[in-house]
From TrEMBL:
Region (Disordered): 46-69, 255-299
Keyword Protease belongs to the record: yes
Disulfide bridge partners, by residue number: 218-266, 247-254
GO cellular component terms given for this protein: outer membrane-bounded periplasmic space
Family annotation (SUPFAM superfamilies): Hedgehog/DD-peptidase
Source organism of the structure: Roseivivax sediminis
Protein name: Penicillin-insensitive murein endopeptidase
């Protein structure tokens, strides 16, 4: 009996050196295989991507990887932002959108710790991240597809013990006045400090917020202005601001957005405000853009078929 044990161990060691080496490599990189293109039928590849991804209940058991673009992609190996942490709560849990790439979850937890140091803020209320496997959504966003986008509520959290029901019923608050040309009385220096911190993080590519908030921060900032470059004026975004991360190192299937133009972008934001206050006369030659056709699975990067079919 005693002599058989080393022989068994040797056999196992040899097996490990042979056919299982691929699995061992996978184990070293997180224990899960990388998402690869998987053959799917023509019928499936022509199906609506939001119908396919919008009903997936859980993440793919694959190496974490953002695939494609923020508005045309999917996410392998997403992880869940815990519903409640010491300095955050995920909101609207019924949507099942508190999933993202690990880098996004780390980032949000870091930012929430900073937010919790601001007067009147117990941390952050965090809105939509991505679906379990990313991809287009049945309702709501064009982006948030690759696990690198996150919406953060403007409402300063007073408590972090909200029940599930409260997280459905409580609303964020709007920060805007005059259709977004200005901030309203709800705006505080803490909003400025949290967005400054959010944008100063090297993991961040850009942050979307309504034009009046950007101009307000441009006017109030007396120190370093470099972070303002990443704050981008955009439609909506007065109940929440939207953080978009860069593709992480080594994510070769992830496509970055072109960086924002050089400079702090404050003059551009002022132009947005001026156009809100004094809308230019309508262009008689304007033709509204054709609505974009719905994305099919075949429109997404090929690896998304592997994400969709993985368990
Ligand atoms: Zn968003």
């Amino acid at each position: 009996m005693i002599r058989t044990i080393p022989i068994l161990a040797l056999a196992l060691a040899l097996a490990a050196c042979g056919g299982r080496s691929e699995n061992l490599n996978a184990a070293r990189s997180g224990g899960a295989p990388r998402a690869e293109a998987t053959p799917v039928s023509a019928v499936v590849s022509s199906k609506s991507a939001k119908q396919l991804f919008g009903h997936e209940p859980g993440p793919s058991n694959q190496r974490p990887e953002p695939i494609g673009f923020y508005s045309k992609g999917c996410a392998a190996g997403n992880v869940q932002l815990p519903e409640t942490g010491p300095t955050w709560q995920a909101m609207r849990l019924s949507r099942n959108r508190n999933w993202a790439q690990p880098i996004t979850v780390d980032y949000l937890q870091d930012l929430s710790r900073f937010a919790a140091q601001q007067p009147g803020w117990a941390g952050l209320y965090i809105g939509d991240l991505s679906q379990p496997k990313g991809g287009p959504m049945l309702t709501g966003h064009a982006s948030h597809q690759s696990g690198l986008d996150a919406d953060i509520w403007m409402l300063p959290p007073k408590r972090l013990d909200l029940t599930r029901a409260e997280r459905e019923s409580i609303s964020s608050i709007s920060m805007r006045r005059q259709k977004g040309a200005f901030t309203n009385s709800g705006w505080t220096r803490a909003h400025h400090e949290i967005m400054k911190r959010a944008a100063s993080d090297p993991r961040v590519a850009r942050i979307f917020v309504f034009p009046g908030a950007k101009v307000k921060m441009c006017n109030d900032e007396t120190g370093d202005r470099s972070w303002l470059r990443k704050i981008r004026p955009w439609y909506g975004h007065h109940y929440h601001f939207h953080v978009r991360l860069n593709c992480p190192d080594g994510a070769t299937n992830c496509r970055d957005q072109d960086p924002p133009p050089a400079g702090d972008g404050c003059a551009d934001a002022q132009d947005w405000v001026n156009n809100i206050l004094n809308p230019p006369p309508p262009d008689p030659d304007y033709t509204p853009p054709k609505p974009k056709p719905e994305l099919t699975l075949a429109d997404l990067p090929a690896q998304c078929s592997g994400v969709l079919t993985a368990r």
